[in-house]
């Protein structure tokens, strides 16, 4: 009997650790990954993106799902949101990733949707509302207090997409 | 204009007795925030101001107390698109002060790294930011629906630039391998094989890019400005050479401060730069092509000659897209040649002993000459820093071009005038061009009140 492999997930971690709350995703993922079970990590490909680019999305193979993690604007500081990537592309008023620079996020998602075979990759954007993004600033209190919720949301989504419980034995080594 | 020689022009604008004020609200961007204010009274451009708020002012304080290697990691954060330029100006400044002579292969690696940055930066601007202006689209996304192949070509070339930076710098954004005396790690020849193959295609794509953009018709403008760039006798300028100008300037890369100065301008946090005589000047691809085209890679020089636009580039900033495309080809071709000749150095880094003094150097960032100057104490710690980015230096030239160009668009419908002014500013590839819709133009007319564009 042949078992279909669960889908692979590409985790795109956006942000800049030097710019206050823009480093929220990097901080969250850095501390979350060691606690995840090996079975889940084996289905993950983690990419550090800085700012999300069209190529980050068009490079995703057809059989992979994307999870984009970033600080967000358009929601209250500290609030955690999980949205389908396609929903961000479709709704200009949706909370948006903070870390786009080369092109506005609507352009990044739109171009990826046009240029990638099969259109915009399936997947989820998980964001935490940021308060300040200045150079040399620490994470804001709003983000620090809600970091656990941010990590839980990321872990839950990774578990759902990989079909592996994030509560399993942590990876060693 | 405010204190420069940008030129206030009298224009023939029937019915324009009132004052028209073109205002652009601030945009929220990561690396650059700008606003445009253009005031026309009685058919005369009486004020043109591009205000840009650049992060480097903060970085000049952040690097105080840091060693050279720490400075390299910090200044790379100034820009997500041209971090290597900041690292290159800084590392050459410290190595010049410390009397360090780097391995020739390390020198080659640094040129390859700079090629990578020029490739990704120029491809981004030519294809995704500037091309929609010429083809009549509001954005790259709108353009992709009809010209998918152009966008795909641009992204393909840009990806090669990112690959070069990753292979040598450790990662595509804010690379980490550059060190005073060399690199923390030099790549093996095999590490560059993948990107070497990709460069064959990139060279051909870049060559096609030059031919393509040369066919695009820009708005008319004939406004030559003083040009400043680095020039090296044997190669197109990246890290070495002398600072030269169309006015006969010829000084060492450390000596920027002997001929130029930064000025605080009322109403903006950014510093403008002028010659000591108070003149504005233009940096970047236009200046480099005008001043040192003979040092282009033969493929790029040939492509430039085929366009027949070398003189037109000199006087019309809208033609900068051609200059940028030629440099894109140069960077692809030179990177390919350098990789072919690359042999890993015996040691990626040479030892050095810090010494006190002034560490100053200039290199050619994608947008133009980038000057760094550090005062260093006996422990090798920075006690004072000055970073002069090209966008700050170009602000005066942008304003002068706006004053020269605006009269030709004032009679156009508002939306078209807005587009033409946007296009002019984008032609400079300033950091704020990352926001492709930053001109939400408002016209204040004394007789009719304010209207949105």
- Helical stretch tally of chain B: 14
Q: What composes the largest sheet of chain A?
A: 6 strands, mixed
SSE pattern of chain A: EHHEHEEHEHEHH
Largest interface (C-beta under 8 Å): A-B, 25 and 32 residues
Structural class of chain B: alpha+beta
Content-based structural category of chain A: alpha/beta
Arrangement of strands in the largest sheet of chain B: 3-2-1-14-15
> Strand share of the residues of chain B?
15-25%
- Overall pLDDT of chain A: 87
Helix content of chain B: 40-55%
Global outline of chain A: globular
Ranges of chain A with pLDDT <50 over ≥5 residues? none
Distance between the termini of chain B: 24 Å
As a whole number of angstroms, the C-alpha radius of gyration of chain B is 22 Å
Helix-residue proportion of chain A: 25-40%
Task: Enumerate how many helices of chain A there are, as a single number.
Answer: 7
Largest sheet of chain B: 5 strands, antiparallel
End-to-end separation of chain A in angstroms reads 33 Å
Task: Please summarize what this structure is.
The complex is a heterodimer of chains A (173) and B (453). Chain A is of the alpha/beta class.
Key features?
heterodimer, A: 173 residues, alpha/beta, six-stranded mixed beta sheet, 6 strands, 32% helix, 22% strand, globular, B: 453 residues, alpha+beta, five-stranded antiparallel beta sheet, 14 helices, disordered N terminus
Which helices and strands occur, and which strands form pairs?
The complex is a heterodimer of chains A (173) and B (453).
Chain A: E1 8-14, H1 24-32, H2 38-41, E2 44-50, H3 54-58, E3 64-73, E4 80-84, H4 85-90, E5 96-97, H5 105-115, E6 123-129, H6 141-145, H7 147-162
Parallel strand pairs in A: 1-2, 1-3, 3-6
Antiparallel strand pairs in A: 3-5, 4-6
Chain B: E1 19-23, E2 32-41, E3 44-54, H1 56-62, H2 68-75, H3 83-98, H4 104-135, H5 140-146, H6 148-169, E4 178-179, E5 182-183, H7 193-214, E6 228-231, E7 242-245, E8 250-251, H8 256-259, E9 260-264, E10 271-275, H9 285-292, H10 298-307, H11 310-315, H12 320-340, E11 357-365, E12 368-376, E13 382-388, H13 390-405, H14 414-427, E14 442-445, E15 449-452
Antiparallel strand pairs in B: 1-2, 1-14, 2-3, 4-5, 6-7, 7-8, 9-10, 11-12, 12-13, 14-15
Helix pairs in contact in B: 2-3, 3-4, 4-5, 4-6, 4-12, 5-6, 6-7, 7-10, 7-12, 10-12
